[in-house]
Design a protein that fits this description.
mainly beta; Thrombin, subunit H; Pdz3 Domain; 6-stranded antiparallel barrel; 20 strands; disordered N terminus
């Protein structure tokens, strides 16, 4: 094709045809597309199986383990996973944790390309991220954007219990139904989040959320891989972060704690002497500056043993002991 000057334009080499942004996105896409599957969840019905939903999943190990969102496989025991090369495998749900919205599934594949997991803790607002998944049933879709905000949280529930998933990644990379369970990756193709929620038009058009890959989510995934479940300790309090009174702050060397706004009747906290308006400062020697700290410390290792806690009550420092019980997701 000639220009208006009659001169044939020269074809740019492939490397020059793409700007830096495009090269990053295409590189990440090429790296991750083989590691992200499209999922169809199946329910057993009389006479066969019935598809009940769709989503995405990220390959954890070459021998068939994938991570997805718990709500993608909710109520299902099995389904099919389809990969970018056209291969399709049946899968079974090894374990799902509604309180983190993470689940692990297993296929019979033995030569999958595992994605590299990164660390969401080093993300910065404005950083480029790439989402890979199965939006609206369109497999192998890629979108790009930036980290819009960090430190967000959203509420999950299981039975009568709720939990804040904290340090959630907010992004403006286009996410749609079906992206859930897919990968949110940094510019080096490392998975730093599992896409979990699309914020609706009445809340924030064009914004999506992802569960961060960090020490907490790695431990959850590891527990699902090994045991098919996540055991958590339970105190039975609700509250929010609050600065300590100056004298207590000086005495304890902490500036912030969790003000107790509710104590469940008969709970470990109630039996251990924690009261309304107490400010929880440390639990088992670890600081509790916000509710996320308390949740992080409610691990399996603390179930059934007496755990020392420090609270500030009416300006006075008080030492107590509580014995957490196991959290029941169905109670």
């Amino acid at each position: 094709m000639r220009t208006s000057s009659g001169i044939e334009p020269k074809e740019a080499p492939d490397g020059e045809a793409l700007d830096t942004y495009s090269r990053v996105v295409t590189t990440v896409a090429e790296r991750l597309l083989p590691s992200v599957a499209s999922l169809s969840a199946m329910h057993r019905v009389r006479g066969g199986r019935r598809a009940s939903g769709s989503g995405s999943a990220v390959v954890l190990t070459p021998d068939g383990h994938l991570v997805t969102s718990a709500h993608v496989v909710a109520g299902a025991e099995e389904g099919t996973a389809t990969f970018a090369d056209g291969r399709e495998f049946d899968y079974e749900v090894l374990g799902a944790d509604e309180l983190s919205d993470l689940a692990v599934i297993l296929t019979k594949a033995r030569d999958l390309r595992a994605a590299e997991l990164g660390d969401a803790g080093v993300l910065r607002v404005g950083q480029l991220v790439v989402a890979v998944g199965n939006p609206l049933g369109m497999a192998g879709s890629v979108s790009a954007g930036v980290v819009s905000a960090l430190g967000r949280s959203f509420v999950t529930s299981a039975g009568r219990h709720g939990r804040l998933v904290d340090n959630v990644i907010q992004t403006d990379a286009a996410l749609h139904p079906g992206n859930s369970g897919g990968a949110l990756a940094d510019s080096r193709g490392r998975v730093i989040g599992i896409n979990t929620a699309v914020v609706g038009p009445m809340i924030g058009q064009g914004l999506g959320l992802a569960v961060p890959i960090n020490d907490t989510s790695r431990a959850i995934i590891s527990s699902l891989l090994r045991h098919g479940q996540v055991r958590r300790a339970w105190l039975g309090i609700g509250g929010g972060g609050r600065p300590l009174p100056p004298r207590a702050a000086r005495a304890l060397g902490h500036e912030q704690g969790v003000e107790v706004l509710s104590v469940a009747t008969g709970s470990p906290a109630a039996r251990g002497g924690i009261r309304l308006e107490d400010i929880l400062v440390t639990l088992d020697g670890e600081p509790t500056a916000d509710v996320g700290d308390v949740q992080r410390l409610m691990t399996e290792a603390r179930i059934g043993r007496v755990v020392p806690v420090v609270v500030v009550r009416h300006g006075e420092v008080i030492h107590l002991g509580v014995r957490p019980t196991e959290l029941s997701s169905t109670g």
